[in-house]
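Section: Multi-chain targets

For targets with more than one molecule, the full set of components is provided together so that the structure can be written out for the assembly as a whole rather than chain by chain. Components appear in the order listed by the source. The example entry contains two components.
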Amino acid sequence: DAGVIQSPRHEVTEMGQEVTLRCKPISGHNSLFWYRQTMMRGLELLIYFNNNVPIDDSGMPEDRFSAKMPNASFSTLKIQPSEPRDSAVYFCASTDWGNYGYTFGSGTRLTVV
Amino acid sequence: GESVGLHLPTLSVQEGDNSIINCAYSNSASDYFIWYKQESGKGPQFIIDIRSNMDKRQGQRVTVLLNKTVKHLSLQIAATQPGDSAVYFCAESGGGTYKYIFGTGTRLKVLA
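Its structure, encoded as tokens over all components, is:
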């Protein structure tokens, strides 16, 4: 298995623009998580999907953030409009709740200028 | 994906020495714990886990110790190698929640 695949690896955008981050979880994993990592806050859980259904989005910073999971093999995290304080590394992770916890993707480094 | 940076506690060890990384967890109801390793430019990677009905678990060159009395977790790395240089996170879950709560991380630097 290729693991959790995220795209793009790097994104630089101007303030006010829409940004879409993409994630393909490991096949057979029924749960997917979006995390944000910054120096100040560490790893923060943004949203959790189980069987493609959003279960907990209490970590989503504000209405500018939205996430979808239209099927078991694809999820998106969208920021519209983006702001400089959204600059961070965004990770997607998936699990089947067996051993080994979450499997993380390599992340998307977002820079909003 | 860069790991959390300048504000992390750092542990520097000589190559070949043993490393001990500590973590205090927050929830006494947590019953599953994981150590993750995050190398520069990568996502966190599973190293070893332990359930609350155990106090020690060993893997290849790594050992995790759990002290539930004081809510403390440690990761021991034997014969530390340059490839062990990374940021190490502990994570806890349980108490009826699906969420993993991550610690702030410790940066391990291996000196040649």
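The longest strand of chain A covers residues 42-50.
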